[in-house]
């Protein structure tokens, strides 16, 4: 039997710039081969080493607005002057087929996703302190001092929204933070709706339906 629409789990991971989200997600994908990351659309220019269709779908503002008007996006937001969005059709197809999908988006986008997928698992990654965040942003050497201070200010605003998420990971020790995220992923896969959808022969034969 084909899995029901909620066979897969949808995860959203949100974090201020410099909190270590990219490194944690990369390691998580290596440890969890059954988990795939959603590729977002963005109007920002590619960073060194980024590839179109792999890291992001890079489009200009005109194409972005055209796709937005056509209702192609599950969520979208503007971050640091650039637009980002998630393909609605791609997410529906993947989760409906039983795949576990991870979204790296901002907190506003996460709320839009949850409106469409109420069982979305929300994970917020926070730095151990604002001072540590500033140090990380400076050490990576990608932004000017002005941009760094803008990102620090934005991080303070984003941290105020951490309470919207079920799980908050303090990324002080990378190995510990990774283990915590892996535990969340594994726990989500054992939720009743996902198990019922992944095992239709077992639950369907018993005449067991969805929870109310």
CATH architecture: 3-Layer(aba) Sandwich
| DSSP summary, beta strand count | 9
Strand content: 15-25%
Oligomer: single chain
Low-pLDDT parts are: 1-5
CATH homologous superfamily label: P-loop containing nucleotide triphosphate hydrolases
User: Secondary-structure element sequence?
Assistant: EHEEEHEEHEHEHHEHHH
Structure classification: alpha/beta
Structural domains: how many: 1
Q: Give the CA-CA distance, first to last residue.
A: 22 Å
Read across the widest sheet, the strand sequence of neighbours is: 2-7-1-8-9
> What name does CATH use for the topology?
Rossmann fold
Largest sheet composition: 5 strands, parallel
SSE layout:
Layout: E1 10-14, H1 21-31, E2 35-37, E3 40-42, E4 56-58, H2 61-69, E5 73-79, E6 82-87, H3 88-96, E7 100-104, H4 107-116, E8 121-126, H5 130-139, H6 145-159, E9 167-170, H7 174-189, H8 192-198, H9 200-205
Parallel strand pairs: 1-7, 1-8, 2-7, 3-4, 8-9
Antiparallel strand pairs: 3-6, 5-6
Helix pairs in contact: 1-7, 5-6
């Amino acid at each position: 039997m084909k899995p029901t629409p909620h066979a897969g789990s949808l995860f959203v991971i949100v974090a201020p710039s410099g909190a270590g989200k990219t490194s944690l997600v990369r390691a998580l994908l290596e440890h969890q081969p059954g988990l795939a990351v959603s590729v977002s659309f963005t109007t920002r220019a590619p960073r060194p080493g980024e590839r179109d269709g792999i890291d992001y779908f890079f489009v200009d503002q005109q194409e972005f607005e055209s796709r937005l008007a056509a209702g192609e996006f599950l969520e979208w937001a503007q971050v640091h002057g650039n637009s980002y969005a998630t393909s609605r059709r791609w997410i529906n197809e993947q989760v409906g087929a039983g795949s576990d999908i991870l979204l790296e988006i901002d907190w506003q986008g996460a709320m839009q996703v949850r409106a469409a997928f109420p069982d979305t698992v929300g994970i917020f990654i926070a730095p151990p302190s604002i001072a540590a965040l500033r140090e990380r942003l400076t050490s990576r050497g990608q932004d000017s001092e002005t941009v760094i201070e803008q990102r620090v200010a934005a991080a303070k605003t984003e941290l105020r929204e951490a309470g919207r998420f079920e799980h908050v990971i303090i990324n002080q020790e990378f190995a510990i933070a990774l283990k915590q995220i892996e535990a969340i992923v594994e726990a989500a896969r054992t939720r009743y709706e996902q198990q019922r959808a992944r095992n239709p022969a077992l639950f369907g034969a018993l005449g067991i339906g969805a929870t109310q």
